[in-house]
Amino acid sequence: MRVMLAEDSTLLREGLVRLLAEEGHEVIAAVGNAELLLKAVAEDQPDVVVADVRMPPTHTDEGLRAALEIRERWPGIGVLVLSQYVEKRYATELLTGESEGSEGVGYLLKDRVVQVDEFLDALERVARGRAAFDPEVVRQLLGRTTHTDLLGRLTTRERGVLAEMAQGHTNAAIADRLHISQSGVEKHINAIFDKLELAGGEGYSRRVLAVLRYLDS
């Protein structure tokens, strides 16, 4: 993969550069702020961008804003954002931005980066046009939902399948992770769509809408 990094911590940025190079990926730019990231992407589009949510000059949401702009201007580029903490609003904005659906987007806690296999798996999923949300992000988002009437319709197993969907796993991966058959996963997903009143033919993927039901504040 061709990767661009935006992280103001020199230590973390250089560590990621080395890690990705060792895994055979090409890091075509590694910058320390959102402005330089957008400039680099405009000059040479990568397969995927990894960006910290908070970067100079204000250390609030510069990285997120850059990620949203990249998704809008270059929808074919995967975007994986990193955050020190679970920030519900940022995860929601990534899923509900101007670009179509949640294809090629991810949100990971920085602690997940040290779990190299999980980080690389998430990066590859995003680069391939799939979603990758940190399990802790998903747990907290689902736990804070205001749609308790709809959530209450789901069984424990269906909630587990929904959490795996939100992380961006395929049906086959969900079956393996939850130790059930793939046909069983498909039945649970259809039940989730029915209980959450998600009819077919929606503009957004129903898998995405199943998660968005719980992201409203």
Overall shape: it is globular
Distance between the termini: 36 Å
How many helical stretches? 11
Output the strand order for the largest sheet: 2-1-3-4-5-6
* Helical percentage: 40-55%
Largest sheet: 6 strands, parallel
Mean pLDDT: 83
| Coarse structural class | alpha/beta
Q: Give the H and E element order.
A: EHEHEHEHEHEHHHHHH
Q: How many E strands?
A: 6
Low-confidence stretches: none
Whole-angstrom Rg: 17 Å
**Approximately what portion of the residues adopt beta-strand conformation?**
5-15%
Secondary structure topology:
Blueprint (H helix, E strand, L loop, with lengths): L1 E5 L3 H13 L3 E6 L2 H10 L4 E5 L9 H12 L4 E6 L4 H8 L9 E5 L6 H12 L3 E3 L1 H9 L4 H4 L4 H11 L4 H8 L3 H14 L10 H7 L5
Parallel strand pairs: 1-2, 1-3, 3-4, 4-5, 5-6
Describe the structure.
It comes from Streptomyces cellulosae. Keywords: DNA-binding, Phosphoprotein, Transcription, Transcription regulation. Residues 2-125 form the Response regulatory domain. The longest helix is centred in the last third of the chain and has 14 residues, at 182-195. The chain is 50% helix and 14% strand. The chain has a six-stranded parallel sheet, with helices on both faces. The protein has helices spanning 10-22, 34-43, 62-73, 88-95, 116-127, 135-143, 148-151, 156-166, 171-178, 182-195, 206-212, and strands at 2-6, 26-31, 48-52, 78-83, 105-109, 131-133. It is built from eleven helices and six strands. Helix 8 (156-166) packs across helix 11 and helix 9 packs across helix 10. With 217 residues, it is α/β, with parallel strands linked by helices. The radius of gyration is 17 Å and the shape is globular.
